[in-house]
């Protein structure tokens, strides 16, 4: 699914801010638990988002350590 020009990807009414660096790039979302999603770019797991942390439908990406 592509990231829009504002750095946001939308999935099931939830908006995850990924960042401007990846705008218009395809990324993957994989559900790994109840409301917990991994954000993937190619073979790299960028981080996780938890829908329970949503504020007004927006969630930020918790970046994985490198």
Please give the structural blueprint.
Elements: E1 8-11, E2 14-17, E3 28-33, E4 36-41, E5 44-50, E6 58-60, E7 62-63
Parallel strand pairs: 2-6
Antiparallel strand pairs: 1-2, 3-4, 4-5, 5-7
Number of helices: 0
- Overall spatial form: globular
Q: Total strand count, please? A: 7
Radius of gyration, CA atoms, in whole angstroms: 11 Å
Measured by DSSP, the beta-strand proportion falls in: over 45%
Biggest sheet strand order reads 3-4-5-7
From the N-terminal CA to the C-terminal CA, the straight-line distance is: 24 Å
Give the structural class: mainly beta
Q: What is the overall pLDDT average? A: 85
Q: Give the low-pLDDT segments.
A: none
- Main sheet: strands, sense, barrel: 4 strands, antiparallel
Oligomer: single chain
Give the SSE order as H and E letters. Answer: EEEEEEE
Whole-number tally of structural domains:
1
Classify the helix fraction into a percent range: under 10%
Describe this structure in words.
This protein is mainly beta. It has one domain (about 10-65). Helices cover about 0% and strands about 50% of the residues. It is built from no helices and seven strands. Strands 3-4-5-7 form a four-stranded antiparallel β-sheet, with no helix packed on it. The mean pLDDT is about 85.
Keywords:
globular; 4-stranded antiparallel beta sheet; 7 strands; single chain; mainly beta; 3-stranded mixed beta sheet
């Amino acid at each position: 699914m592509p990231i829009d020009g504002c750095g946001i990807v939308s999935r099931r009414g939830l908006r995850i801010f990924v960042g401007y660096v990846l705008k218009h790039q395809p990324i993957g979302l994989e559900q790994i638990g109840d409301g917990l999603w991994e954000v993937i770019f190619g073979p790299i797991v960028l981080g996780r988002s938890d829908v329970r942390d949503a504020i007004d439908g927006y969630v930020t990406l918790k970046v994985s350590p490198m």
